[in-house]
Structure formats: C-alpha cells, structure tokens
Recover the amino acids of this structure.
C-alpha cells in the first residue's frame, strides 16, 4: 500500500477559546474543583495548545483543529427568559446569578476528546466515518456544547459519501454520553479493522451504586452509539470503569487509560475487571489478526493519586511515520517520580512505545484537561482526508497565523468577574468572527447567524 492511500490518524485539537477560566464547574474533577476562582490566562492556554500542535507537526503527524464555541452563550441565557439587547441579557443574568453565567461562559469545548465518539470506516458497516456528538449531560456547562459541536462537525465533515454525523443522543440521565474520552480502539494498524472498547461509568437501568462522584457515561449511551455506528458483537465490547478510579477523580476513562493500534496503556485500577477486558480484546485481536500489547501500571508502583495528579494516562499515544509510537505527556508526569519511572520502564520494555515527549499544558491541566483531552482522533484514508474541510487542517504557517490571532484577541487574565461584562462579550465575538474567516468556515455561530 502506498503511503498516500494509508489510513492515518488526524488529531483535531480544540482551539482554546477566549473565555478560558477556572469556575470549578466539574464535580468529581479534582483539578477543576481545586483551582476554582483562580485567575486564568486564556492567551497562554491557547498558545500552549498551539505549541502542542506544532510539536505534532514536527513529529510528521497530520494536525487539525475544531474551533471554539461562542461563550458567553447569550442565546442560551435568552432561552431562560432574560431579554433585551445581548448586553442586557448578559448583565441581568450576571446580576441574578454569577454561577449561572459561569456555566454559560465556560470554554470547556476545548476538550475535544469529549466532542464526539468516532468510528473509522474500517469498523463501521457502511465504510463511512461515523461521528456522534457527545451530549455531555452529566455536567450543566458541558451539556450546552452538543448542538454547536454537531454544527461544526457537519461543516468540517460535510461529505456524505465519506462521513455521517449523527445527532447527539437525547438529553436524559439514561443516555449520558462523554464521547471519545470513554472509548478506545485496538487494531493491528490504522489501515485495518479493529475492536472498539466502550467504557461506561454506570448502568442507568441497573441497581444504585455507591459512586461518590458522577459516573458520567452510561452503559445505555455506549450501546446506542455502538449500534448507530454499525458496530456488532465482534468489533464492539463494553466494560465498566472501576468505581475506585471514578471515586479517586478519574471522571473519564481517558484519565487512566489510552490506546493506540495494538497497545492498551492503562492503570491497574482503570477497569472493574481488567482480566475480562484483556481476554475480550485478545479474542477479537485473534480474529482481526494482531497481537495486543497490554501495558499496565500496577497500583503499588504507580499510586492512583499520582496518576490523577500527573495525568500519566491522559497522554496521546501516536504512531510515528517511521515506525514505533510516541507518548505525548504533560510535564507533570516528568515531575512525579513514580510516573516518570513508569514511562522510562515502558520505553525500555518489549513494546512499540519508543519515545516520550513532555509538554507544558498547565493552563488546561488546571481544569483537568491533559494532552489527550485536547484532541479528537479521526482515522482517515486518503479519500476521506481529501474530503475534510481544508481550512481546519494545520501547517506551521497556519499555526503562526493562529498564534497572531490569539495574541491580538485574547486576554492574559480572566476571572469570573469578566464573564458578565458586555465589552468582553464583544471581544469574544470579534475574535470568533475573525477566526471563521481564517479557517474559511461558514458562519457557525448564533451571533453571526442572527445578525445581532
Ligand atoms: O469535563 N473540565 C473538563 C475537563 C475535560 C477533560 N476531558 C477528558 N478527560 N477527556 C470536564 O470536567 C472544568 C471547567 C471549570 O471548572 O471551569 C471542566 O469542564
């Protein structure tokens, strides 16, 4: 197969939006709670994300972005009965409840691992790439994302010969869906078919559990997405997250596990029953003709607390063009003795992982978002790649342009006080309007469509 026709993974990173702030909105996400009310630096956050994308390009990997959503989200506040001009809506809502505006002002769509679940054409029954935008019903601020996500994905993956963008699942506690953050895929190479592992936090129809923090993803949502994407019992398996992990702060499975091709890199406490998961995957691997590598960090050597604070498993695990795999990790992993030792041991071991790269993503990390949270992986063959909206595909020059855009439009200090300020609202809109042109996208934002 020529390298042109090869299926490769393209990462769609969430470009951090101008309203990045620390509002402590995510119960069960330790970093979000402990940094509540700290002053954020949206400019630094966006530039750290851009630096990560540069790093990926330097490794020879394709890189794309998903644009930020419109925040503060005035149409959402208007739907709650606030009225007048957009400035009035924002001000009266803020005077009534700052906490409310914090929810409608969050830049949380930057964590695009939660934007959607993606099934590559090699697995789906019709050869198309399938996307289901995640409804994110578990967290009020995140439940506001799915319709805008659907709009963006539909514009970027518009070609119906190659892509199907499903509507998000219904907003009901039965169907809490957190997208790719609770989804792994194991295969011999991105070219071939594989097995998709859906990991859920709770069975919404099962007996009550003793979870201290929310199990955000439901079994019923995972099953629905698998069905919608044309998967079957051979290429989809479902496993529960362990309550131990959720209660320690692993609000998504990708805080304790990452996969790439034949490798599953995870913590001993990630799953309820790791042995059952391994044997389920191993049986499928035999059918699909590959040898799985299970790389598990034991709880004795790497305490779960260190995993949660360093985000060891929220790394990106990527296949390098020349062969082998690289881990893209947050600097906190290098600064934590147990996690650094485990990475070194992995690099020296008999497995495909050959490199580790440590990146500074402190602004996002302080809200519980590491390298893996910031990207949505989409495996694409050559024809599918050619069908992606080209404006969002990055090269160094475009990243330079984005960095200039950030430096022009973003503040370097942001706290809750600013979210209720109409001047700030206008700034964010000017930024997003300029971005729409830079990315050659249609008008995606409500403020562009309503002409206000
Ligand atoms: O959903 N944090 C996000 C972090 C998402 C990380 N994504 C993955 N693990 N894939 C969340 O908890 C915090 C926002 C605040 O508190 O201001 C927040 O939404």
């Amino acid at each position: 197969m020529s390298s042109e026709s090869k299926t490769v993974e393209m990462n769609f990173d969430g470009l951090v939006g101008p309203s990045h702030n620390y509002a402590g909105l995510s119960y069960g996400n330790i970093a979000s709670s402990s940094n509540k009310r700290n002053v954020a630096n949206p400019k630094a956050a966006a530039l750290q994300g851009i630096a990560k994308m540069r790093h990926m390009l330097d490794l020879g990997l394709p890189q794309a972005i998903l644009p930020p959503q419109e925040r503060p989200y005035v149409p959402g506040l208007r739907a709650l009965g606030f009225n007048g001009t957009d400035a009035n809506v924002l001000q009266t809502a803020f005077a009534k409840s700052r906490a409310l505006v914090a929810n409608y002002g969050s830049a949380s769509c930057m964590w695009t691992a939660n934007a959607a679940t993606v099934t590559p054409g090699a697995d789906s029954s019709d050869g198309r790439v399938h996307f289901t935008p995640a409804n994110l019903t578990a967290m009020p601020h995140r439940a506001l994302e799915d319709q805008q996500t659907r709009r963006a994905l539909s514009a970027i993956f518009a070609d119906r010969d190659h892509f199907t963008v499903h509507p998000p699942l219904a907003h009901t506690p039965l169907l809490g869906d957190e997208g790719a953050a609770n989804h792994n895929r194991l295969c011999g190479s991105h070219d071939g078919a594989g097995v998709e592992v859906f990991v859920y936090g709770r069975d919404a129809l099962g007996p009550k559990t003793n979870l201290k923090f929310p199990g955000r993803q439901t079994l019923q949502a995972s099953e629905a997405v698998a069905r919608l994407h044309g998967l079957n019992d051979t290429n989809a398996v479902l496993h529960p997250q362990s309550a131990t992990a959720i209660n320690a702060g692993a609000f998504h499975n990708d805080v304790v596990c990452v996969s790439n091709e034949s490798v599953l890199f995870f913590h001993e406490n990630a799953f309820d029953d790791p042995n059952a998961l391994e044997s389920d995957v191993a049986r499928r691997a035999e059918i699909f003709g590959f040898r799985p590598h299970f790389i598990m960090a034991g709880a004795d050597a790497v305490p779960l607390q260190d995993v949660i604070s360093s985000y060891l498993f929220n790394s990106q695990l990527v296949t390098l063009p020349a062969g082998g795999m690289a881990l893209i990790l947050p600097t906190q992993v290098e600064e934590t003795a147990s996690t650094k030792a485990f990475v070194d041991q992995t690099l020296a071991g008999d497995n495909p992982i050959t490199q580790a790269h440590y990146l500074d993503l402190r602004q996002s990390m302080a809200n519980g978002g590491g390298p893996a949270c910031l990207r949505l992986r989409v495996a694409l063959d050559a024809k599918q790649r050619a069908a992606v909206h080209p404006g969002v595909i990055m090269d160094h020059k475009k990243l330079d342009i984005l960095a200039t855009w950030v430096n022009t439009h973003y503040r370097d200090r942001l706290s809750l006080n600013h979210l209720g300020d109409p001047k700030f609202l206008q700034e964010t809109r000017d930024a997003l309007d300029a971005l729409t042109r830079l990315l050659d996208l249609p008008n995606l934002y409500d403020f562009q469509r309503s002409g206000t």
Remarks:
- DSSP finds 18 helices and 15 strands in the chain.
- The CA atoms of residues 91 and 245 lie 40 Å apart.
